[in-house]
Amino acid sequence: QVQLVESGGGLVQAGGSLRLSCRASGTIFSSNVMGWYRQASGKQRELVADITSGGSTNYADSGKGRFTISRDNAKNTVYLQMNSLKPEDTAVYYCRFTRGVYDYWGQGTQVTVSS
After folding, report:
1. What is the pLDDT of residue 27?
2. Which of 25, 67, 85, 114 yields a CA-CA distance of 20 to 30 A from 92?
3. Which of 4, 10, 27 is nearest to 85 (CA)?
4. How far apart are CA 97 and CA 10, in angstroms?
5. Do 30 and 37 contact (CB within 8 A), yes or no?
């Protein structure tokens, strides 16, 4: 089992920044993928960015140039630095951990960007 705890969400004005953190605990094997997804009200959950344990990253077009994903394997923690935030970035942001057939989600953290 893997438990994921997110932090760092909140209310920010357009153009501002937030940094999300997600710490994984439990049975953590190497060679995994951790990522951030978001779900806005009335919309489907979508990928924001993910990163392998080796450091390879993947970004959705919506966040390219504004968001940066990183991880600290020693701390089993993944981060999402979000800059130049827009009202359309408002959503619940979820952390995800995958390794093979194993797939775990955090409970989510609310990000609200005011105009």
Report:
1. 82
2. 25
3. 10
4. 22
5. no
